[in-house]
Amino acid sequence: MSTWTTFRWIALIWGVVAILTKPVFFTILGNQWRGLLINKAYREGKRSNWIIWVSIPLIFLIVFTWWRVAVEPVPLSWILAAVMSLSAVKLVTLLFDYNRFQNWVKSVLEDKQKERGMVIAVTISGMVLIVLAFWIY
After folding, report:
1. Which one, 25, 57, 71, 133, has the greatest CB density within 10 A?
2. Residue 1 has pLDDT above 80, yes or no
3. Model-level pTM?
4. Residue 27 is inside which H or E element, if any?
């Protein structure tokens, strides 16, 4: 096995977190997880401080990953950066338009079809990142 590159670590961690936070927690915890998201993590009104403390480092990680894409010749590294950039949309909305994001979370969690679509999309992207971590990077 080759050495563990920056891309391998980031893809593996990002993929595992994606799979844990969506399909695993939604399946195992069900309504408890939904309640935690609506009533605690993304509660109505004031944005929780944890959102700032998590979002800002993640935005820097996304910028760092794009920088590594530019300077480290790793095949298909742009895929990781692109998937991470999709998360940047969520992070920016969380930071600058929290009420809109909170309303979106509620709408997804109240509509089983939307929730299922989100869980499937996140599961697939998490699996793609894990595959990239072990077989490409």
Report:
1. 133
2. no
3. 0.76
4. helix 25-29
